[in-house]
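Re: beginner question about structure tokens

> Can someone show what the tokenized structure looks like for a real chain? I only ever see the sequence side.

Sure, here's an example I had lying around. Input first:
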Amino acid sequence: MDKEKKTVDDILTRLFVSTLKIEERAIAARFGNDLSISELHVLREIGVDKTKTMTQVANGLKISLGALTTSMNRLDRKGYVTRTRDAGDRRIVNLGLTDAGKAAFGIHEAFHKHMVEAAIDKLSAREKTVLLKSLSQLDDYFIAEWEKCRPK
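And the corresponding structure tokens:
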């Protein structure tokens, strides 16, 4: 791997690890060991604006319905989510957040807002454009790779 590619690899690895570690600390400071990062990401995917179905959330997180069911069972037991059957089709399960889930969602959103602001506030308009294009291309790559290996 040439020096430039190695630098990109090192930065991406550090960003991934650092983001997870900082999120873990932020969660632990507010919720102790009650919520994991993956559970918090489930709450974020459900959102506060409206209910979503199990399928919508699983697809958004790129996980199986079985994996989501396991997370939902834990989050339900902990009091962060609601699950209701659709009146028109009882097979459909609608997900929402309780007040505790909305509070956790808000804290997580504040973390992400602060992180994004720290990343772009000192950039020029041109630098922001280049960053957004670069991140979009990286995102496209990861989406394409995910599609190749995702569970069917």
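Each token stands for a local structural state, so reading them left to right follows the chain. The mean pLDDT is 89.
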